[in-house]
Design brief:
Elements: H1 2-9, H2 35-45, H3 48-65, H4 69-77, H5 83-88, H6 90-96, H7 106-124, H8 126-154, H9 170-179, H10 187-206, H11 210-224, H12 284-290
Helix pairs in contact: 3-7, 7-8, 7-9, 8-9, 8-11, 9-11, 10-11
InterPro entries: Rhomboid_2
Pfam families: Rhomboid_2 (PF20401)
Region (Disordered): 233-291
Length: 291
């Protein structure tokens, strides 16, 4: 009986390994959307400016289809960034001209916005994306209308060209398409840049219209916006992007390893050492072992 008692008293608890658990986001939360509705909401929230602009263009496109051709021409003429309007109310027409479509259709721009504007906004952030498209839209407008003004002054264009209809979002689209060059790396960057230059520069060799000058100028402005791309992470601020955390068994307030709630557990404190459980009174099973 004494031998059994000594054997039971000499037993020491075995050290256990620290388990690392990866905390997953709760099911059904905003961090882990489920189903098509959740993925769509995440897709829209990651590029709010792009899809808000698309929504406005959808409304204005519906309004345009309700007008007769003569009424529509007069309506858009008041919002055109022509020479006359730029001289009298530049701020108003520069803003309102980017809210109406001229040529193509809304479904086409829905595809283009998802291919160009949405990736650029997610990569650059809404503020820098707005800076790029605003600079391209305003800069290309003034450059193209300046070329037209020179043509009018030299007699290459009629005097009535000061009221030329000029609305749309293509200048901003060209600038954003060009700045996406810096999103790519390696040979793909140079191939993409050559494609953008060929697409917007080729019409200058054939048409030489003032809008062709504007599109090429917008692309060049987009290339010049490279300083705005510095520090763009591409994934920063993405909803649902949570870094996994691990439970490493940090020490409790008493200095001994334990759980986060302060309760001690049997964990290894170092090589070859172990922290036992708190002392407890012997029960029936311990009494049987001692007999």
């Amino acid at each position: 009986m004494r031998a059994r008692f000594k054997l039971a008293a000499c037993r020491i608890p075995r050290p256990t390994r620290t388990r690392h658990r990866t905390r997953r986001p709760p099911t059904g939360s905003a961090a882990s959307p489920r189903g098509f509705a959740g993925r769509l909401r995440t897709h829209l929230c990651r590029a709010p400016g792009t899809f808000l602009w698309l929504g406005i263009l959808l409304v204005t496109s519906v309004i345009m289809h309700r007008f007769s051709p003569d009424v529509l021409t007069d309506f858009l003429q008041q919002r055109s960034t022509n020479i006359h309007n730029l001289l009298h109310s530049p701020g108003r027409v520069l803003l309102t001209s980017a809210l109406w479509l001229d040529g193509g259709g809304w479904p086409l721009y829905f595809v283009l916005y998802n291919l160009l504007h949405a990736p650029a906004e997610r990569w650059l952030g809404t503020r820098r994306w707005l800076a790029v498209l605003g600079t391209a839209h305003i800069g290309a407008t003034y450059l193209s209308e300046g070329v037209l003004a020179v043509a009018i002054h030299t007699g290459a264009a009629p005097r009535s060209a000061v009221n030329t209809l000029d609305v749309g979002v293509s200048y901003a689209l060209a600038g954003v398409a060009a700045v996406l060059t810096y999103r790519l790396t390696g040979p793909w960057r140079y191939a993409y840049a050559l494609g953008v230059l060929a697409f917007y520069g080729a019409p200058l060799l054939t048409g030489r219209g003032f809008t062709d000058v504007g599109h090429c100028a917008a692309a060049l402005i987009g290339f010049a916006c490279r300083p705005l791309t510095r520090g763009a992470s591409g994934t920063a601020g993405r909803p649902g992007a949570t870094a996994p955390t691990t439970d490493t068994g940090s020490p409790t307030a008493t200095g001994a390893p334990g759980n986060a709630d302060g309760s001690n557990a049997l964990r290894t404190a170092g090589p070859g050492t172990a922290t036992p459980l708190p002392h407890r009174k012997p029960g029936i099973r311990d009494a049987r072992r001692m007999t």
